[in-house]
Predict the 3D structure of the following.
Amino acid sequence: MKRTTIAALLFCLLIADALSAQSLNDKIDHVFADWNTTSSPGCALAVVKNSRIVYERGYGMANLELGIVIMPQSVFDIGSVSKEITAMAMLLLVEDGKISLDDEIRKYIPEMPEYGNTITLRHMLHHTSGLRNYDDLFDIVGIPEADLTTDRDALELTVRQKGLNFKPGEEFLYSDTNFFLMSLVVKRVTGQTLRQFAQERIFGPLGMTSTHYHDDHTMIVPRRATGYAPHNGGGFEIDMSNFEQVGDGSVMTTVEDLFNWDQNFEHPIVGGPEAIRQLTTPGKLNNGQPIPYGMGLFIDHYRGLKWIHHSGEWVGYRAAFSRFPDQHFSTLLTCNCIGSMNPMGLAKQVADIYLVDDFARAEKANAAQAANVPATNLQGYVGTYWSHKNGALRKFEVRENKLVMVAPGMTYDMLPLGSGRFEALETDSEHRDRYVFRQSGKGEFDLEAWEGGAPTTYNAVKGPLPNSSRLNEYVGSYKNDELEAVWKLVIHDGKLIRQQWMAEDQELQPAFPDGFIGDLSEGQFLMHFNRDATGTITGFDAATDMVRPMTFTKLENRIGDGADNVLR
């Protein structure tokens, strides 16, 4: 009788556990419902709890042309999630005694210019080097992501840069150049490509049999998902790249292989506990201020819980690597469409479902009240502010009684702290940049911002936007020697257009007096025209989020001066 009763209780518990798991999985499926069709790209998902995959599934199509569905075994390009693996490769070289993180980059890549300040490998791993982002430089030159580029192309462009975004160690600013150059360090120190080194020292030992650095665009990859982008007329179009440089990205893998990588944080096989500690320890600026980035990973909090994460974005691929180390919980996502898809946002929704009790306890313990600032007080901060130093624009609006900051490609709710002080609430992070409005005149403000750890002044901009009657003064050809590029600006249908050789012509949108915004393959750029004492335009400065202002000089229209070329 007792045995029968115990058996019945165990059976009931198993049934209850199965029903509970099914309920969780149904909620997860609902999160991905929009992508769970045979007519769209989608995602592969693995949910990890206590060192095992508790749920995995594919949603949507890996290949729309051939009707192949996404599976957990589908292979995706994970973009910048690759950076943490590149960082591990560097730490293995430290373990081997072949490099030191405090070595200067010129020890291994002597072609790099002398900038007057030492750039170390440690600076590069923490994104505090000040090096301009080479992907953005390619964009500014006009080289599309679909084109074929190699290590040589990226290195030649990098070493032509005579200036930095800032003095090394003074600020934190993300730059793909840092991790691309590390792939060259690995090659020059070991004699192996990063693909070969990682296979031998990382992927092989961890059993990641479907993973590699994709440094050959002709390579056949079994089970590879195609990258897509929304098509202007509806549906989707192929969005792939032939870039062959690696380190900053280009790892191709599956969510099942990423599980093996994730478990190396729980039970270190590759690199050992010391390498994991360094990957997940925030870096510091020269002044000792910590930054929200370790080595290839953001060190963060979400809803009160410690959160380690990195997202990946490259052409038509998206990825999210999300870990809650104290809860031994991870969400691994690989996707094949840009546009409205936000894998890290989806990963957070998965965590919301599985860790609901953990979040409730943490939020109760960490409850904080924002300063109560009446909506009427916010109107005084509304306006457009421009940083000449950073070449950046910040626009503030009031929406639903909240102050909102709009920047190219970004929108943030602002948390009021009182006395003109705010923090920007990021959607994928609890790291918050600080902003302080300071009165500069009667009813007028300037803005002091701490973005990347260093203060920057944004001045309020006033005056009319450039209109069609004034566009003619911007027409002409402009050259930048570091990029070896010429921009040709013309007017078409009453709009200022940048003509390009390798890509479609580009409309420049008026943003503020003498200022325009244009689209990049990822994000936007800001250009501001410069004038001499007589008011004549002499050139313009172009900047992106990861490239501080670079000056283009206006060319005289003389035969043979290159003014008729878009690129050369």
Summary: The mean pLDDT is 91.
